[in-house]
């Protein structure tokens, strides 16, 4: 009886390359990482790499896109179950980090990849698209959880999303620099405090 061979799907191959690239980038740096090293780390050949990505730059863009898509999917799944902002934040705090993608697990690598791409001016529009997608996600969450709850104040979800996103990125950077005084839940704690102090009740 012949043994049935199961070939990895395209999605499986891409995910393996993402994970391998993250490890190689962290070890060798983004600039020093070679396609050969990434493919070998994933257990593939150069041909397998090039059947999925034309270059290392394209791989990086795909990793950033995957990170944004996963973030949107995770948050919308939580929002579907928790329409109250306090409950939503509590669910984020207990979210299984092991299910997240390499960039969510390694904020330093995430920032390094963004800076690597941003150094080339022609690449910035691609980063802007991802930034707008993150803002829209937060604006949708703000609108869904705080609708008609601002006690007479007119909510501006897009602007609030920009503020929240800047706050999140700032805390991520502060935690990398000074983790002793910047707990892992600093961002979510700050959102909770701001909501309560500004009177944005969710009852």
From TrEMBL:
Residues 11-71 form the HTH tetR-type domain. Pfam families: TetR_N. The keyword ATP-binding does not apply. GO terms for molecular function: DNA-binding transcription factor activity; transcription cis-regulatory region binding. Residues 34-53 bind DNA. Keywords: DNA-binding. InterPro entries: Homeodomain-like_sf, HTH-type_TetR-like_transc_reg, HTH_TetR, Tet_transcr_reg_TetR-rel_C_sf. PANTHER family: HTH-TYPE TRANSCRIPTIONAL REGULATOR RUTR, TRANSCRIPTIONAL REGULATORY PROTEIN. This is Transcriptional regulator. It comes from Bradyrhizobium manausense.
């Amino acid at each position: 009886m012949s043994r049935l061979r199961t070939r990895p799907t395209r999605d499986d191959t891409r995910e393996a390359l993402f994970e391998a690239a993250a490890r190689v980038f962290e070890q060798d740096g983004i600039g020093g990482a070679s396609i050969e090293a990434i493919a070998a780390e994933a257990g593939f050949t150069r041909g397998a790499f090039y059947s999925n990505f034309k270059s290392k730059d394209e791989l990086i863009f795909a990793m950033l896109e995957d990170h944004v898509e996963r973030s949107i999917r995770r948050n919308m799944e939580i929002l579907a179950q928790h329409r109250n902002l306090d409950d939503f934040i509590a669910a984020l705090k207990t979210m299984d980090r092991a299910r997240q993608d390499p960039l969510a697990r390694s904020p330093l690598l995430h920032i390094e990849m963004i800076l690597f791409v941003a150094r080339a001016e022609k690449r910035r529009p691609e980063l802007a698209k991802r930034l707008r997608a993150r803002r829209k996600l937060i604006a949708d969450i703000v609108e869904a959880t705080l609708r008609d709850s601002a006690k007479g104040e007119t909510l501006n979800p897009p602007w609030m999303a920009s503020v929240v996103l800047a706050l999140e990125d700032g805390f991520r950077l502060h935690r990398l620099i000074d983790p002793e005084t910047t707990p892992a839940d600093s961002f979510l704690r700050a959102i909770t405090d701001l909501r309560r102090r500004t009177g944005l009740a969710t009852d």
